[in-house]
Predict the 3D structure of the following.
Amino acid sequence: MAAMKKIVAGIAVIAVVAAAGAGIWAWRTVDTARNAGADDTVALAAFTSTDEAAIARGEYVMRTADCAACHTQGAGEFAGGYEIHTDFGTLVSSNITPDPETGIGAMTERAFFDAVRNGQGSEGLLYPAMPYTAYAKLTDQDMHDLWAYMSTVEPVSNEIDETAGMAFPYNQRLAMLGWNMLYFDKAAFDGDAEGDDRGRYLVDAGGHCSSCHTPRNGLGAEIAENYLQGAKVDGWYAPEITSNPHVGLGESSAEEVAEYLGTGTDGKAMASGPMAEAVAHSLQYLSDDDLLAMSSYLKSVPGSGVTAPAKADLGSPAMTRAALRYEVNCSACHGTRGDGMGDLVPAFDGNHALLSDDPTDLVRVMLTGARAAHTEAKPTGGGMPSFAWKFDDAQIAEVLTYIRNAWSNAGTPVEPATVAAARATLDAREKLAEGY
Ligand code: HEC
Ligand code: HEC
Ligand code: HEC
């Protein structure tokens, strides 16, 4: 997780700041007065909610917040074990089932609130790979309901040592004190979470959309001025999702964006990689009203100033070669007019997800192939073959520049060096995965 790398890189620097400032500033992070309304007497292992309505609402909150995506991995539902790789080692997600020894069975509701909304876990401060910086905005009601739901989860015994794979000094939880001190805004949500501000609430609190879509500074904190304006994340690029008409959502209707979020495609763009996971684990379970509230909100967010560049000269020798290559290798699926195949294959003409100045996703998909999200509504989930073996770096760059500039599109050219760099990184990862 690229964001995590930056966060951890910042820790060493900040640890020094923290040591100096901890005494004065500690209250800002450890103060959890806001969670005082949560019960502090009964541990999760000894509690099973019988309030069916609260449990159902809590399950929905869990979906909007995508808890299962990071906490379910092999050993059983919510039993933890999901690995987040960084340059400084591996962080593993916790077992959050009610098992008293290896899960969070010993936590009271208050301790649960402190962990989820304040980043204070059972072994000390949590790393922000657990998105408490966003969950801090969850309302008391949603937290109570989430707690009711967690009490119905099957206890699973699965011992997790979250930081065993982290090297010193990055395994020092106290260092997070400094990071929190500088960057953690734990203020409650400042609007009507169930009414007019529902969309913003879902995006900022549970959805933690900005954790991928907002760029970060050198110490891993989100840059507020560039809110949702696009960022690199774990070898992918999460594009701008604001009102910007060229690279954002300005030209799509709120209904189209809602369809993309709920099903993985609006018939033009198609979610792959981490976004396909967000759709499959979380967004497909949201109500149509909530999806529309989120989309309408996104379309109201001020965009970056990025505008369409001049169109590439489609008559140049390179673009003529690329057009032919497209015709032979791509048009059977993506269409001779770049119009795709409905929900099965993304269109290119007018697909704004294609036009970001950062072409990371397109290069990646060309090299590795991709599989679209499987959802209840659109269960087919099309496949894109890899062209790594067939095209060299320059050929891939050319055909991508072509699809970014053909039809009504205009996008910056893709450089062969970008493809070469991606190829080298992906190769290295593959070797790592195969244990070379
Ligand atoms: C993006 C991945 C991610 C998501 C989404 C996520 N978590 Fe976590 N969570 C983690 C990681 C990683 C840890 C371990 C962090 C650490 O030890 O510093 C963690 C730790 C925790 C802990 C602390 C456990 C302890 O014993 O201290 C709790 C409680 C928790 N998560 C609950 C939740 C809930 C509830 C949700 C949904 C509202 C959620 N998490 C969503 C990654 C995630
Ligand atoms: C784990 C990282 C991650 C999270 C969390 C995430 N996204 Fe994404 N998102 C991505 C990536 C990567 C892409 C590009 C996918 C592709 O090109 O297929 C993307 C694409 C999108 C697109 C398509 C953009 C376009 O121009 O067509 C929309 C809309 C979107 N995300 C909205 C959201 C919303 C809303 C949330 C929060 C509920 C969210 N995302 C959370 C990583 C993420
Ligand atoms: C067998 C059908 C097929 C062929 C042939 C094919 N593609 Fe694809 N392509 C797909 C599918 C399906 C997806 C969606 C995958 C996903 O969303 O994960 C896709 C996705 C893509 C994307 C990502 C678009 C987005 O919205 O994120 C790019 C870029 C792309 N293809 C380029 C090409 C190029 C260039 C060629 C020819 C060299 C090509 N494809 C050939 C089926 C195909």
Observations:
- The radius of gyration is 23 Å.
- The mean pLDDT is 90.
- The CA atoms of residues 166 and 250 lie 42 Å apart.
